[in-house]
Design a protein that fits this description.
- 2 copies of one chain form a homodimer.
- Chain A is an all-alpha fold.
- The longest helix of chain A has 28 residues.
- The two termini of chain A are 14 Å apart.
- The N terminus of chain A is likely disordered.
- At the A-B interface, helix 1, helix 2 and helix 3 of A face helix 1, helix 2 and helix 3 of B.
Chain lengths: 238, 238
């Protein structure tokens, strides 16, 4: 699946995923054909927004200036609001949303620690890129949920992220330090592997029958294409 | 001023404040008689809410369970919302709210690091107690601001903090570990000194003429009395 990269990425993280079998014709399967179970879907989608909130709150806390802090804080508020709205949806189908989320929390928390990065700029670019992939993924996955809950969840997730400030903050820093751009380009490529593992795990945990790698792959190709556009938006070579 | 403590507190932090001169009759002065300058007042009040937000987001991130995390997250949202509303007020009287806040940010950030505590329970009790004192203080101070801005600011600060969950979380932990209660009681007393220094500094930076220690003291006595009630609410000996 990583052949869509225009350049060979750092392979460290990537090797955890099985290589694509060459010569196999991959059918173009829309994620709408995947029918995730509602409770695990909402629990995962809600907890991912909590994780995004925590990451944004952390970079806001560590921001080098009050101006940067101020510009990031609305993104924290948006992720927290989305979390609460998705938990409210989860609360309509289960008595104990926290218990539903507790099951997947350790894996997501571990993932968040892995993609945190070594400094403020890596953390910042990670939020923009990983939250971008995960938002795209959960919106796509919502299409397979029967009734109007999927539409509602997709609308919540798609609402303004207020993360548009991140490319601006990064552009200033990259312009002042070209080496930072190279480092963040490598970092941005590394993030994809771990993030797609979270997505794949979400499909598996949703008890979906279409978990065959070949069926998931076209969806991931779409996610990676959108990721590449975000990399471009950051001025980084995908 | 620390004689209102029912027991002698740990003196480490306290000694930074000058001892009360014995035998001096202290006039009862309402903070309404202090007339803070609007811009520094709003900048400080707004940045304190940002600091509360950051502290709550941190304890939510580090919460031992998703249930605890969920119960704390609304308090983060409330503090962030109050911050944004106070910044909006600040934006009506200055072109550059971030610049106004930048001046006081290092002192508040340093204070936040000092009162953070050594573990999750100290952090949690610190938020409840220090944010309690500072909210009380900025509401009292608002009374001296001419026009309706003070009333508006006080209403913003006084709005539901969603921190009522903290005594519940602490009560469970203290019931399970009596030593924790003793440790948090000491910690709760220590926090007062540093917090009142922030408050005193806010009065000084607001360019107030009534900065004589004796005039500030009755106000602090009131803040400490309310602090003692919060300590009681936590089941801790003030």
């Amino acid at each position: 699946m990583f052949e869509v990269f225009r350049r060979p990425p750092v392979r460290t993280e990537v090797q955890r995923l099985r290589p694509r079998r060459s010569g196999v014709t991959v059918p173009r399967v829309a994620l709408a054909e995947l029918t995730p179970e509602l409770e695990p879907y909402l629990a995962q989608a809600a907890y991912i927004q909590m994780s995004i909130f925590e990451s944004v709150a952390r970079v806001a806390t560590l921001a080098p200036s009050v101006r940067a802090k101020e510009s990031l804080s609305p993104a924290a508020g948006q992720a927290l609001d989305k979390h609460h709205r998705l938990v409210a949806e989860l609360g309509k189908v289960t008595d104990d949303p926290a218990a539903q989320m507790q099951g997947i929390a350790p894996a997501i928390d571990h993932y968040a620690a892995v993609v945190r990065g070594g400094d403020w700029y890596e953390s910042l670019s990670s939020i923009y890129l990983t939250a971008g992939i995960l938002d795209d993924f959960f919106v796509l996955l919502a299409a397979g949920i029967p009734g109007d809950v999927g539409t509602k969840a997709a609308k919540i997730i798609e609402a303004d992220t207020k993360r548009d400030v991140i490319p601006v903050l990064l552009a200033d820093a990259i312009a002042a330090d070209p080496m930072l751009g190279s480092r963040l380009a490598l970092w941005g490529r590394r993030l994809v592997g771990d993030t797609l593992l979270v997505a794949r795990s979400a499909i598996h945990q949703s008890g979906n029958v279409y978990t065959d790698e070949q069926r998931i792959e076209p969806v991931f190709t779409e996610l990676i294409a959108k990721h590449s556009r975000r990399m471009d938006g950051l001025g980084l070579t995908a």
